[in-house]
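Translate sequence into C-alpha cells.
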Amino acid sequence: MTDTAQIGSSPVDWTSSEADARRRRRRASESRLRLYGVIAIGTALGLLAILIGSLVLSGYKAFTQTDVVVDVYIDPEIVNAEDPARGNYRAIVNQTMEGLFPDASPAELRVARDVLTSNAHFMIRDYVVANPGSIGETVRLEIPASDPYDQLAKGEIDRDLPESRRRVNDIGLALYDRLDEQGRIETEFNTALFTNADSRFPELAGLSGAVVGSFFALLVCFLLSFPIGIAAAVYLEEFAPKNKWTDIIEVNINNLAAVPSIVFGLLGLAVFLGWFGMPRSAPLVGGMVLALMTLPTMIIVTRASLKAVPPSIREAALGVGASKHEVVLHHVLPLALPGILTGTIIGLAQALGETAPLLLIGMNAFITSPPGGLLDPATALPTQIFIWADSPERGFVARTSAGILVLLGFLILMNLIAILLRNRLERKW
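Result follows.
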C-alpha cells in the first residue's frame, strides 16, 4: 500500500496537509457527536433527578402523621353496652378534651376540640365496638391530629406570623404546646396512607381505594387485551394473506398506537356508558377503555416477537409433517412468549399511569371505601392524585407528591419484572 491512491482520474495524496486536515475535521465531528450524546443523557438524568428530588422533598412528610395520645373514659351512661355503636361519642370526645385541659375556658375548649381529627368520635366508636369490654374503663388511644396541627408539628406553619395569617391561632398554639409538654404529641409512620381510602380530611386520606381500583382495572385490561392481542397478531403474522386489506389493517393498528389516550376515553364514554349503559366509575369500564388503548401496542409487540423467531423453526416443523397451526401453537408462539410477556407488562405499566381516559368515564369520583368488585364505584391511582392536586387543603400538597411517588414505585416495579422475565426467558439464536 502506498501513500498515494488513484480515485477517479486524479491521484490522492493521503499524506498531504489537506488530507490530514480532513481527518482532523472528521475526528472533531465524531468527538462533538459523542459529546452531544453525553450532554443529552446528562440533561435527561439531571431533569429526572430534579423531578424525583422535588417529589421527595415535598412528599416525604406525608409518610409521617402526628398523633395525639389521649386517655378516653368510655362512660357507660353515654354508651349503651347492649348497642355500643349508637352511643354519643361526640360527648365522650368533649369529656376527653375537658380532662386534658381542666382549667380551660369554654372558648379554649372549643379550640381544643379542633386539635383532634374531625372523625375522632368515629374512631373511638370503632374501638368500643371492637372491644365492648372497654365500656366503663379508661383506655389510651392515639388519635390523629387535625390537618392544621399536623402541619404545625411538621413545621409547615410559621409561629412568627401574625395570628390573622396563621391557620392556628394563639389559643391553639398554647394548647398544642401544653400537649407537647405532657408528651402527648407523637409522630409515627403514616400507615393510614396505605390502609385508608380517600377522605375530605387530609390526615385521614389514603391510597387503598385507588390501589384496589387500579388493580381491578388492570386485571380487566389484561384479561381482554392479552388474548385478543395475541390472537390478532398471530393471524396477521402467520395466517393472513398479504394483500391491500391486511396492509390497511396493519397501517391502522400502527396509527392507533399513536392516538392520544383521551380519544380512547371519549370512545369508552360514548360506547360503554352512552350506548350500553354500563355503570359509571366502575373498574370494569375503566379496564375496557385501557384495553382498547393497550391493544394496538400488544399486537405490535406480539408481531415483532413472532418475527424474531427464525424461519428455520417453522421449516423444520413443517418438514416433519406438522400442520400450520401446530407449527404456530407448539413451536413459534412458545418461543416468542418471553418477548410477548415483556411487551405486555410494559403496556400494562403504561395503562397504569393513564389519567385522561379514566377521568372521562368518571373514575375521579369521591369514593370513601375500596371497591368490592368490578362493578363498584372506584378511583385509580392517577385519578386519585388528580383529585388531591385539586384540593385546597395544605395537607393534600404532600399527599399528592406521596401519591406520585407510590405510582412511580409501581411503574418501576412492573418494569423490573419485565426486565427479569426478559433476562430469564430470552433465547439467543
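Note: The mean pLDDT is 89.
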